[in-house]
Write a structure and sequence with these properties.
Shape of chain B: elongated
CATH class of the largest domain in chain A: Mainly Alpha
Distance between the termini of chain A: 49 Å
Helix content of chain A: over 70%
Largest sheet of chain A: none
Structural class of chain B: alpha+beta
Radius of gyration of chain A: 17 Å
Number of strands of chain B: 9
Order of helices and strands of chain B: HHHHEEEEEEEEE
Oligomer: heterodimer
Structural class of chain A: mainly alpha
Strand content of chain A: under 5%
CATH architecture of the largest domain in chain A: Orthogonal Bundle
Strand content of chain B: 25-35%
């Protein structure tokens, strides 16, 4: 991989990867570390990326998923429970907005791991089901049913907040 | 709550932008092109070559005393020196390429079981189940069959028994001009 190809790959994908990592971990600092680690892994001799078999974007989303999953488990092992997302509430007029944002984040982070990944890729990254299936290593049908379950669970968890939307 | 309302609620969750330093931190780690300079051993070798040339010319003048002989000897010696420098340069380049981070593709498939070794004269590439191939950058003193290959500074490509082998380095070596390589082998059971 040349420097030009590497730079283009970074510029094309790093924002989406950062958003994905940020929503998976609930932490911007962790997300930056994950994105950096995934791009640097491309430069290593033992990197398994083969451009003839996988699109770079699909490979990188898979790498971010693996890294985030490792961190999530490490954190669960350390604390014994899933860490709550940062409290985004702020004073004055930001209270309601911050509260809702934290509530949505908390609800998404409470989903089972695969459902969470699929929901984020589908809703926030607008990724087609076939590509999601490749990233998470499932059949398209399984992705579709998990997405429906995730949305169903969120619908219940977030129902009360919907009424308070301005 | 219908689908549209759920989407509306989910869209409330925004993420911050990554820090501006992230791009620099990642791109700075890309291995830069390695410019090969003459190291201390090569400078010593060059100094010795010049000294020997002067000695040879001096001795020739003493023994023959002829300007014609002096010119002929100087020409022969300069040709030998040029060839010697080229071989030293090639050995230096092969050594740097071999010690860089390499990825080996056989028929387009990334392989982690290929063993690369060699000496100053070239590279050895051992493909499990296929045998060991020797890649020479010059054919001085060699008389036998070989298969041509290509070295482009960043990649080395050759055909091993009908299978396309591509060795990709993390760096670039030489002056960027493609040059031929000669594949000898395979030697089986090594």
């Amino acid at each position: 991989m040349t420097l030009a190809e590497f730079t283009r790959g970074f510029d094309d994908h790093h924002l989406a990867l950062f958003r994905f990592a940020c929503r998976l971990t609930g932490s911007a600092a962790d997300a930056e570390d994950i994105v950096q680690e995934c791009f640097l892994a491309l430069l290593r001799a033992d990197c398994g990326f083969d451009p003839r078999r996988t699109h770079l974007r699909t490979y990188l989303f898979g790498a971010v998923r693996n890294q985030a999953s490792k961190r999530f488990r490490r954190r669960e092992d350390a604390t014994g429970e899933v860490e709550a997302p940062p409290d985004l509430r702020s004073p004055e007029s930001e209270v309601l907005r911050g509260e809702m944002q934290a509530c949505v984040a908390r609800a998404v982070l409470e989903l089972p791991e695969t459902q969470r990944e699929i929901l984020i890729l589908s809703h926030y990254e607008q990724m087609p089901l076939a590509e999601i299936a490749e990233v998470v290593g499932l059949e398209v049908g399984a992705v579709k049913s998990r997405l429906q379950r995730a949305r169903g669970a969120l619908r219940e968890m977030l129902a009360e907040y919907q009424e308070r939307l301005p | 709550m219908n689908d549209q309302e759920l989407d509306q609620v989910l869209n409330r969750w925004k993420t911050p932008a990554p820090s501006a330093a992230l791009r620099g931190r990642v791109l700075d780690r890309f291995p830069r092109r390695k410019r090969l300079g003459f190291g201390r051993p090569l400078l010593w070798a060059a100094a010795m070559a010049v000294l020997l040339a002067m000695l040879a010319v001096g001795m020739e003048q003493v023994s023959q005393g002829s300007l014609e002989n002096l010119s002929r000897e100087a020409h022969v010696y300069s040709q030998r020196t040029k060839r010697w420098f080229e071989q030293m340069w090639l050995a230096h380049m092969v050594h740097a390429f071999r010690n860089s981070e390499l990825k080996v593709y056989v028929d387009g498939e990334l392989r982690n079981d290929v063993v690369i070794g060699g000496s100053s004269g070239g590279l050895t590439v051992k493909v499990p189940g296929e045998g060991k191939y020797f890649l020479a950058f010059h054919l001085d003193g060699f008389k036998g069959a070989y298969t041509p290959g290509r070295f482009g500074g960043h990649t080395l490509e050759f055909d091993a028994g009908g299978r396309a082998v591509r060795i990709e380095s993390s760096g670039s070596f030489g002056f960027g001009d493609p040059r031929p390589v000669y594949m000898l082998g395979p030697a089986r059971n090594q």
